[in-house]
Amino acid sequence: MEEFEPSFANGGKGMSDVVYPDMIEDLPDIDLDLEGVRGKLLQADAKQVVFFDIEPVGAIPPHAHSAQWGVVLEGEMELTVNGRTTTYRKGDAYFIPAGQEHAANFKTRFKAIDFFDEPTRYRPRACERPRASHQPL
Predict the structure, then answer these.
(1) Considering only CA atoms, which of 97, 64, 58, 96 is closest in space to residue 78?
(2) Is the pTM for the entire model greater than 0.85?
(3) Alpha carbons 124 and 132: distance in angstroms, whole number
């Protein structure tokens, strides 16, 4: 049996600089045109899981969607739901009920795993096809 080796960019000194393993990095990117926000999509028949990696982008405007549950792996997020703001840090879990308007603020790099109660919250980013070569065959 193979021994577990945690994967941290800082040599295993804590949860900062979490490095997603290849099995997550190999998942499709979410199709989201929001500078500094990246996600890897794990798709199921009726749900989605997204492995987020978010730069300190500041405020994400209020929005609503299906229920969302997440756990913080790195950094911190200020999450406002129903006018109440709570700061979440590594190890904290959060839940946003379906249809609840919410907003977030990211002042640090942030990594989290989020579970969405719908299969179409995000779509995988379409793969870019290589450009045709103009060289003769």
Answers:
(1) 58
(2) no
(3) 24
